[in-house]
From TrEMBL:
InterPro entries: AMMECR1, AMMECR1_dom_sf, AMMECR1_domain, AMMECR1_N, AmmeMemoSam_A. This is AMMECR1 domain-containing protein. It comes from Aeromonas schubertii. SUPFAM superfamilies: AMMECR1-like. NCBIfam families: AmmeMemoSam_A, TIGR00296 family protein.
């Protein structure tokens, strides 16, 4: 991946990041509260990076555990549409978890990842991929045989060993860990991540 791939990603300042996180939270709360719908419309009107066409993920944690994570690896429209959409999907549409209930929202922390371009990795097998991975930096997307799976770079915090990172991702995609599926294609990407404090 070229250094310019990362430079192309905007770096929101603290106030911009807080505004984007607030919009994600309002998008979730608006499911239950009409006042939040009005606030959301107003917030989107003055949203930082509103017209930026970026891939993004929204991740929810509850008591330090994953509670939902949904997004896209390639841009699907301006951030003013994508961010609220994926915030709602992370809360209510992640098939791994039941839909978020109103009493839970106060205990949920939200993080947003803005993704840089996908960069194909021309590797010949497992050993070459493991040697090429940059722990803590690379997000990884695997695709082949009708299956696909991705891990954001944040997953390195839980799985700092490249082999464990890869094996968990293979398992997530439905492949057996420890091997190299035939016809596997691999991409990596970088992110700008920001999260609510607490």
């Amino acid at each position: 991946m070229a250094a310019s791939d990362f430079i192309e990603l905007p770096q929101p300042g603290r106030e911009e990041a807080l505004a984007l996180l607030g919009i994600a939270r309002l998008a979730i709360a608006s499911r239950w509260d009409d006042r939040c719908r009005d606030e959301l419309s107003h917030a989107i009107g003055s949203m930082p990076l509103a017209n930026a066409v970026l891939a993004c993920f929204v991740t929810l944690h509850e008591e330090g555990r994953l509670r939902g994570c949904i997004g896209c690896l390639e841009p699907q429209g301006p951030l003013r549409e994508a961010l609220p959409h994926f915030a709602r999907l992370a809360a209510f549409g992640d098939p791994r978890f039941p839909p978020l209930e109103p009493p839970e929202l106060g205990g949920v922390s939200i993080s947003i990842s803005l993704l840089g371009p996908l960069s194909p990795m021309e590797v010949e097998g497992r050993a070459e991929l493991l040697a090429s991975l940059r722990p803590g930096i690379d997000g990884l997307w695997l695709m082949g045989g009708g299956r696909r799976a991705t891990f954001l770079p944040a997953v390195w915090r839980e799985l700092p060993d490249p082999a464990a990172f890869l094996d968990h991702l293979l398992r997530k995609g439905g492949w057996p860990p420890g091997g190299w599926p035939e016809g596997l294609s691999v991409w990596r990407y970088r992110v700008r991540e920001f999260a609510e404090e607490g």
